[in-house]
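Got a spare moment? Tell me how you read both lines of this record:
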Amino acid sequence: MIHVSSLSALSSVTGRLHSYDLLTLLSPDSPEMDWSGFACDWHVRLAFHDIAEPTPGLTAPNRDMMQAVLDFGRNGGRQRALSIHCWAGISRSSAAAFVIACDRNPGFERDIATELRRRAPFATPNRLMVRLADDLLQRDGRMIEAIDGIGRGAEAREGEPYQLPLKWPIG
């Protein structure tokens, strides 16, 4: 499973996991944190703003960052859970979870997006992240179409933690 949360819920989510890898997606101007209290096996931190289009003065996600997300999903979670968080648990972390699930399960993009919406009505995956991953994975727009198909999530300041399966089809 992929465990998705906001930064404020991260301790409660990871506290229930026996063994996990952690992906942190925060803005470059986020305060430095001491991550030593998290007993993860592997921790990847990426710093970019939650923007859907490149914007002057802000750091947009790029191909290298999305390759790092894909590498995290490919190298982690085989024997351990994956925990992904961003500031609010709505956009960047949801996009990363969707991208990793799509990478592991080609052809299930629409099913994964539909399940993401069912489990997280507030989720609005970062469209730029999804578009970059769609290109890297050569999905010919299927990932973007799937995310566009579920539309924008319900308004929320912060998302509730949720889980997204790593293997499809699900029962």
Notes: The mean pLDDT is 96. The two ends are 14 Å apart (CA to CA).
